[in-house]
Amino acid sequence: MQLLSSNILAPFIISASLLLTACGGGGSSIGDSSSGGNNNSGSTAPQWVTGQFADDSTLANQCSAPLTQKLWLRSWSNDTYLWYNEIADRNPAPYSVAEYFELLKTDELSDTGNLKDNFHFSMSTAEWELLNGSGASVGYGMTLNLRNPSPGISRQVTVAYNEPNSPASNAGISRGTLIVTVDGVSVADANDSDSIDTINAGLFPMTSTKQTVFIVRDLGAQANRTVTLSAGNIVSKPVQNTKTIQTANGKVGYLQFNSHIATAEKGLYDAMTLLSNAQVNDLVLDIRYNGGGLLALASQLGYMIAGDEATANHIFERTSFNKKYTTINPVTRETLSPMPFISESVGFNTSLLRSGLSLPTLNLKRVFVLTTPDTCSASEALMNALRGIDIEVIQLGDTTCGKPYGFYPTNNCATTYFTIQFKGVNDKGFGEYSDGFMPSTNPTIDSEVPGCVLADDLGHALGDTNERLLSAALFYRDNNRCPATATAVARAPTKNTFVDPGFMLQDTRNQNMLKNNRILLPSALDQ
User: Fold this and answer.
1) HEC string of 107-172?
2) Could you give the 3-state DSSP secondary structure of residue 293?
3) What is the distance between the alpha carbons of residues 297 and 272, in angstroms, rounded to a whole number?
4) How much is the pLDDT for 520?
5) Other beta carbons within 10 Å of 183
6) Which of the four pLDDT bands, split at 50, 70 and 90, describes residue 212?
7) Model-level pTM greater than 0.85?
8) Domain of residue 212, CATH code
C-alpha cells in the first residue's frame, strides 16, 4: 500500500546499474565497540579520524562490524553525495548504522528557503529488489490519500486508487472510499500514540498474514460498512486505464501511469501501441500519483510521445555529479555522457518484453499531463525533457513535488541505501525546478507550465471524462483556456514542517515511500 500525502516526505532516485553485493547482517545495531571491523586476521580495525576518509571499497560488506559499516557509509557519502562538502563529519560511535546514515546529508537550505535534501533513505535489499523487479509489496492493494495528518484537525484517509485483483478491489473498495476506523480506532480524531500506532499498523501491514478490520464509507453511500482485509504480496500494475476518447475534434488517448518500475516497460509498450494504432490526435498522461523510478522508462515514454523527428539529435537529460567528478560518473566510473531519448525496448524484465524492439510512437507536438504534489522525479524529468525539445506540455492539477535529483541504490550488508548523487537538466540546460512544476495561466518563469490549477477529484474514477482533471484537459484542448472550475488550490507545505511523528499518520515502511524516485539506466546501457 502506498501513501500519497503532501505532508509526508518521500525519498529517492535510482539506477538499476552498479549495485554492491549485499551480505548477511543487520544495519541497525546500537552503538559500537572500537574493536572488529576487518575480517582479515591480524589486521588493524578501521577507525574514525576526522577529515580522513578511506576508500569505501575497502570497507564494504564487512557485516559483522557495525563501526565498519558506518565508516563505509561515511566514505561512500563523501565520495558520491551531491553535496558531500556540506555533511558534518561526526564520530559514528554513538549512533546505530541507521541513525548514522540519517546524519550523512546536508542540512543546508535552497535559495527558496526549503531543505535541499528531503529524499534520503534506506530499506532492506530484499524489499527493494522485490519492489523494483516485480512491483510487489505487502499490503491490501489500495493507495491512500492522506489529508490533515497531524492532531487538532479532522484527519481524512481516502482511497486514491487500487490494484486490480487485490484484497481491496475484491472487497469492493475503490477510489473515493473513506477509511473511517482501523481496528476500532477513529481515523479522524485519534490523538494518542497507541491509537496512531494501531492505525499505522492497520493501514501499512508489515506481513502478509496481517488481518485488519476497517469501517469504510463508500463514495456516494449514506451508511458505513465493515470490511476485513487480509494483507498479501501485491503486485503493482503501473500502467492502467489506457483508452481512446472520441471527441468532436478527434481522438484523445488517455493513459494512467503510476510508477516507473521495471514492469512498466511492457505496459507502456502495449499502451502506446494501442494508442498509435488508434491514431490519436492528442494524449492525456495521468501521472498524478507517479513518484518516479527508472529514468530510462521516462526517456522511452518521451520518445514514444514525441517520435523520431522531434527527438533526433536531442538529449533526454544531461546529468552532473558533485564537484569531484566533472567528467566521470562516480558510481559507474564511466565517462559522463547525456541520456538520449531511447527508441528501443531495454528489456528490464525479459520475461515480459525482450530488448531491441522498436518502440511505437505517437508523433505528437503537445501532451496534457495531470499532476499533484505526488508527481515526482522521473515524472518531472519527462515533463522537463519534452519541454526541452519544444513539445508543448500543458499541466492540469497541482504543483509537482520538485525533485531534479537522482541516485543509484547501493547495497551493503542487506540494506539498500539511497542518497542524492546527481542532478539533471534538459536539452536546453534547464533543471531548476526544486520547488516543482507549477501550472499557470500566465507563466513567467521556466518552472511555471501553461495550464490550470485544480484540486484532485476523488469523487470520480480515474479515466472518467467527468473527473475534474481529465475534464479540464479536454476543455483546454477545445478552448485553449482553463474551465471555470479552475481555482487556486492551497498546497500543504512539504518542507520545513515539523509534525511529531508519534501523532501523525504515516507509512512507516520505506517500501511505501518509494516516491520521488528516478532510477538511472543500467551502466551497460548508458550509451
Assistant:
1) CCECCCCCECCCCCEEEEHHHHHHHHHHCEEEECCEEEEEECCCCCCCCEEEEEEECCCCHHHHCC
2) strand
3) 13
4) 35
5) 15
6) very high
7) no
8) 2.30.42.10
